[in-house]
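ok so I'm stuck.
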Amino acid sequence: MFVRKKSNKSGKISVQIIDKSKGKYHVLKTIGCSSDINLVEAYVIEAEKWIRNKIGTLEFDFDNSDLRINDFFDGIESLENVGIELLLGKLFDQIGFNRIRDNMFRLLVLSRLSHPVSKLKTTDYLFKYHNLSIDVQVVYRYLDKLYKSQKEIVQQISFEHTLSILDNSISVVFYDVTTMYFEVESEDDLRKTGFSKDGKHQNPQIVLGLLVSKNGYPLAYDIFEGNKYEGHTMIPIINGFKEKYKINNFIVVADAGLLSNENVIELEKGGYEYILGARLKNESDEVKKTILSLNLKHGESVQLKNSKKGYNIVVSYSDSRAKKDEYNRRRGIEKLQKQIITGKLGKKNINNRGYNKFLEMKGEVEIKINDEKIEADKKWDGLKGYISNCKLNKDEIIANYTHLWQIEKAFRVSKTDLKVRPIYHRVQRRIEAHICITFCAYKVYKELERQLTEKKSELSPEKAIEIAKTIMSLKVRNPKTKETIEKVLFLKNEQRNLAQLFNF
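replied:
not stuck anymore, here's the structure
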């Protein structure tokens, strides 16, 4: 490829990028056309830059006679990964996190996205791939600082950016909780054993509550003691969010795990509209009888009124949900039968936890499965309920509730891609700081996802990050002038395409 200045009949000069292949010349790109000689030269410089980026080769301004291959290799000063900064650092700035003028915060957030490991291993990563020598104790001291001063501004920045991309309107918020376990045995005031959503019931844990907007953009979070009932976490976060940002008239959406009479009362008292997953089998006998008499078909739904409690109940039915319910029950019963045979079940196992509800005592010692309870349970297969006090119709209520998968995705990404757990910190302030960094990292992840969708790219956020990790910068000392030359290497089409997509 080379740059050509072509004179036109109009007297203007076109600056073109020409490619020669198979003996023929092709115009790859016309940079510009002008009669102004200064502007033409500017076009030439732009064209030369375009060729360098496209080819991904190094050009040095020295006499070839002075450059020998050994001189070149001897002059290499560093090879550094810069793709993460070029891609994710740009998004970090666009969101507004650069308002936190502390490079350590930036490094920890971007590292959580590109190489999520312990803080000790993070320092090894920064040294190996970014030529940064940072003592891990410096990182720990920074976490103490982050805990004290930056949690609130991180959430403020995230909220402001989310508000801007949602046209300054947040009409629906989604709340859910998860658990984060620790690789330790002892408990303290925060880390308590409790019901673990990760199946780590023997490990001390914390409860993390997360509030997101439509499309899953993070708004606020808080952490609670590991043994705290998840239903008691929702109201404090929602009230805090409302008070801090002075936002009214939004609908609160949460799953059935957050449903309790206390929460419903508090939501009503706070003037909130809500959509909560219903526990249909816990409704009154009258309501349950009505629901089972509906005989709904696939895709059908109906809205009922619970006059005693003052809210509406929306009930929907789907064949796929019915098949899933039947499958899960069958698997649960098979597991119970195996435990009965092996003698692992006793009187203490007869409770309403999961499929244990099908167990009963026969005589003084024999445990058996109650077939009548199974048949009664089958009647509910495929049914899904929602309770709400909002003015939306039943289809709108169901549609809003289905967006809860976004918060489930947030937890999944945080736990798998960002590896927020297990947590190795012992001190509460550093635990708080660790969660804050992960919250910020997830916000950057969601912005990457949003822009990829907006740009109609087929890349996933994970793939884009993977490509960015391969983009390197080479620093070479000019053996003639002793000056250092730096060049970003775009050696593959996927690297060049990513750079073009995000304009870096």
